[in-house]
Design the sequence.
């Protein structure tokens, strides 16, 4: 495992973090709690110490599972959770980054996580209905009280981060980023590097596409968000799968690796990436983690990867489908 210091803190985090959205069940077609706890234990045993969760992942369920799994090992784990998405009785989330909401949510999260501090506390989405000053000062107050050890934001633009940082410390930023979804390179990662923020990037496997395990007849059940993701529908799905297949051939021929290892190595070598968040919900899915660390990609390899993707994916689409305009907006 590789480790990185979260800049301007004394937190040392593994460069692969376990993402636990799917473990909450919501938007991933349900979850199996015992498998989820075993997955977290497998990740910790594999050298991962960074676990990313959020209240919105299953309306508290993911946090409860993380709390259950880290009992007896709390001090060895870097717990990253989030704040500022409220949800209605149907479980539908909406943004609320008001100071009163933040003060309430931290205590709810601490109870679910069975701990008295959060290592990295992140504003999940910017809330246009709350002044940034109010949100940022509420986060700073939690930091000053010792309930949180680092302050982060997620899905913020560089302009929004700039505004936030006028009123609070800021240590981490969490944007989507993977081989297929690179918008963070334009603005977020350069901003993070220029301002000494550690980027914890999410969606390392592009929601499983880069695992290499998907086929054209793969199906998704229940509320699984991939049923609405245009990448997983015709005609794009076949294009992405062809790219994955060629990337897999390339990884095998050049390094004796598979596409999943290539996707992780590529991420970890990109400028500005502190840690990559990898979503898993079954212990066997964590197995490949160790194989991302014993090789390096040179400029030729990166160019070949880009060539394969541009030849196969004619009409690329980013992660923006997850939050169409109006979605998650404050009530
Ligand atoms: P991801 O890492 O791109 O993909 C996760 C999915 O890939 C898994 O649920 C699993 O799907 C599949 N997978 C994982 N390992 C595999 C393996 N070895 N073999 C085959 N399939 C495998 O997606 P993500 O969960 O969206 O992102 C990671 C984390 O980032 C999240 O859990 C969350 O913590 C964070 N995140 C944050 C935000 C935000 O707004 N801040 C948004 C999205 C995600 P199946 O189980 O269905 O096979």
Sequence:
């Amino acid at each position: 495992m590789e480790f990185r210091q979260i800049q301007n803190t004394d937190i040392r985090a593994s460069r692969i973090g376990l993402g636990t959205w799917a473990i909450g069940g919501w938007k991933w077609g349900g979850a199996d709690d015992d498998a989820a706890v075993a997955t977290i234990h497998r990740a910790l045993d594999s050298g991962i110490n960074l676990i990313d969760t959020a209240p919105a992942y299953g309306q508290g369920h993911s946090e409860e599972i993380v709390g259950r799994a880290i009992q007896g090992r709390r001090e060895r784990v870097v717990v990253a959770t989030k704040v500022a998405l409220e949800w209605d009785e149907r479980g539908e989330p909406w943004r609320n980054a008001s100071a009163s909401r933040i003060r309430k949510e931290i205590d709810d999260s601490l109870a679910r996580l069975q701990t008295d501090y959060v290592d990295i506390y992140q504003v999940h989405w910017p809330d246009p209905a709350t002044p940034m000053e109010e949100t940022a000062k509420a986060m700073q107050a939690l930091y000053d009280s010792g309930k949180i050890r680092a302050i982060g934001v997620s899905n913020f633009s560089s302009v929004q981060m700039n505004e936030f940082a006028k009123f609070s410390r800021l240590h981490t930023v969490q944007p989507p980023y993977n081989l297929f979804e690179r918008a963070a390179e334009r603005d977020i990662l350069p901003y993070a590097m220029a301002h000494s923020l550690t980027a914890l990037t999410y969606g390392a496997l592009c929601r499983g596409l880069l695992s290499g395990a998907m086929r054209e007849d793969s199906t998704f059940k229940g509320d699984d968000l991939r049923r609405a993701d245009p990448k997983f529908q015709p005609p794009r799905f076949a294009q992405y799968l062809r790219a994955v297949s060629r990337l897999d051939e390339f990884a095998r021929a050049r390094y004796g690796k598979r596409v999943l290892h290539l996707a992780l190595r590529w991420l970890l070598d990109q400028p500005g990436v502190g840690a990559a968040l990898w979503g898993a919900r079954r212990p066997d899915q964590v197995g490949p983690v160790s194989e991302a660390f014993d090789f390096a990609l040179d400029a030729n390899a990166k160019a070949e990867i880009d060539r394969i993707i541009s030849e196969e994916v004619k009409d690329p689409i980013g992660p923006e489908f997850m939050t169409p305009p109006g979605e998650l907006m404050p009530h």
